[in-house]
Amino acid sequence: MALKTVLVTGSSGLIGSEAVEHFDRQGCKVHGVDNNMRRIFFGDPGDTTWNLDRLRKVTHNFTHHNLDIRDRVAMDDLFRSQRFDLIIHCAAQPSHDKAREIPILDFEVNALGTVNLLEATRLYCPEAVFILLSTNKVYGDAPNEIPLKELETRWEYARPEDYNGIAENCRIDRTLHSLFGASKAAADLMAQEYGRYFGMKVCVFRGGCLTGPSHSGVELHGFLSYLVKVAISGGSYSVFGYKCKQVRDNIHSHDVVRAIEEFAANPRFGEVYNLGGGRDNSISMLEAIAKIEKMTGKKLNWRYVEENRKGDHICYISDLAKFKSHYPQWGITIGLDEIIRQIIEDHTKRLQSA
Ligand SMILES: NC(=O)c1ccc[n+]([C@@H]2O[C@H](COP(=O)([O-])OP(=O)(O)OC[C@H]3O[C@@H](n4cnc5c(N)ncnc54)[C@H](O)[C@@H]3O)[C@@H](O)[C@H]2O)c1
C-alpha cells in the first residue's frame, strides 16, 4: 500500500491497537494518540496500559503520544509536526450506559474531540483519508420498530425483507439514542459534512459489536470479552430485559481494520457504512452464555434484570451489502466461534502472566 504515515487515535484500545499493528506490519509509520482515558471511564479493569506495552514490543515504527483529543492546541501541534496520509479515529467514550453519569465529558470526547481532528485534518492534510468509528447507536431505538418474532433463544426479524438486517437508510433522528448515541451522532454528522461540504475523503463506519482479544472488557462495554472474563475469573453478569434474547452481531477487530484498509486504498467522499458481523456472526445473550459455558467448561454466574437498558436494541444485525458492493474484496473472515476462542485464549494468557 502507498500509505506512509498513519495516525490512530484511541491507539491502546481494541480497534486502535489492531489498526496500529496492522499498518505497522504494512511498513507504515504509525503515530498513536491515547491518554488511557478508558481507565478514567471504567476504573482499573478498563486500564489499557497492558495493550500499549504489548504494542511497543510488537511494532517496528510506532510512536505513542500521551495526548487528549479534546486538547485542540495539542492536536494542532501534532498535525503541524507530521503530515498524515490516513487518520483512523477510534478514541471515544464508548459506553451507552456510562454517558448518563458524565454527559459533558462524553460530549467533549465524542463530539468535540472528533471536530478537533476533522478540522486539523482540513487545515494540515486535506488530502488525507479520515475514518471515523461511529456506532449503530446513532439509529437510536428506531431499529426496534421493525416487526420481530420470538424464537426459543432469540428475537428474529418477522419479515423476509428484513432478513439481512439494518441498512444505512434507517433514520437517525426522532428516536431515543442514549446520550452516547447522541454525542456519536453529532460526530457522525460532522464527519459526513467535512466529507461532503469540503470534499474530503471521509468514511463513517457505524459499528455493530466490535470485538476481539485486545478488548479491555468491562461490564459497561465489550460484552463478549466481559462474559468470557466473568466465566474464567469469576464475578457476575447482569442481562437487562428482552427475556435475554436480544441479538447482537459481532465483528473481529481484524475484519474492521481490513475494511478501513479497503476504503483507504479507494476512498470516497463522506460515505457512511454499517459495519458489524452480519447475520452469520449474530448471537443472542442466551446463546452467547450457553456457547461460552460450553467453550470454557465453566458455569457463568449471571442474573436476569427485568427492565431493559434505555434505548437498547432488541435485535440488531448490520446489513453489510452497501460496503460489500463498494468494496467487493472485503468480507468477514473470522467467524463467531473463532472470535470467542481467541478471547478465551487471550484472557487465560493474561491471567497466567498477572
Ligand atoms: N467496541 C464496540 O463494540 C463498538 C461498537 C460500535 C462502535 N464502536 C466505536 O469504535 C471506536 C473504538 O472502540 P473500542 O472498542 O476500540 O474502544 P476502546 O475503549 O477499547 O478504545 C478507545 C480508546 O480511546 C482512548 N481515549 C478515550 N478518550 C480519549 C481522549 N480524550 N483522548 C485520547 N484517547 C482517548 C481510551 O483510553 C481507549 O484506549 C469508538 O469510537 C467506539 O465508539 C465500538
Explain how this protein is built:
The chain is α/β, with parallel strands linked by helices and 354 residues long. The protein is 39% helix and 18% strand. The protein has eleven helices and 14 strands. The chain has helices at residues 14-25, 37-42, 49-58, 72-81, 103-124, 179-197, 223-233, 253-265, 285-296, 321-326, 336-353, and strands at residues 5-9, 29-33, 62-65, 86-89, 129-135, 148-150, 155-157, 201-207, 209-211, 237-240, 247-252, 271-275, 282-284, 302-305. The strands form four sheets. A seven-stranded parallel β-sheet has the order 3-2-1-4-5-8-12, with helices on both faces. A three-stranded mixed β-sheet has the order 9-11-13. Strand 6 (148-150) and strand 7 form a beta hairpin. The chain is globular. The chain starts with a strand and ends with a helix. The relative contact order is 0.14. The structure holds nicotinamide-adenine-dinucleotide (NAD). The site of nicotinamide-adenine-dinucleotide (NAD) has 29 residues, from helix 1, helix 2, helix 5, strand 5 and strand 9.
Helix fraction, binned, reads 25-40%
Shape: globular
Main sheet makeup: 7 strands, parallel
Please, what is the average pLDDT?
A: 95
Report the β-strand fraction as a percent range. Answer: 15-25%
Structural class given helices, strands, pairing?
Answer: alpha/beta
The largest beta-sheet arranges its strands as 3-2-1-4-5-8-12
| Helix-strand sequence | EHEHHEHEHEEEHEEHEEHEEHEHH
Name the ligand types.
nicotinamide-adenine-dinucleotide
Number of distinct helices: 11
Unreliable spans = none
Q: What Rg, in angstroms, do the CA atoms define?
A: 19 Å
List how many beta strands DSSP finds.
14
Distance between the termini: 38 Å
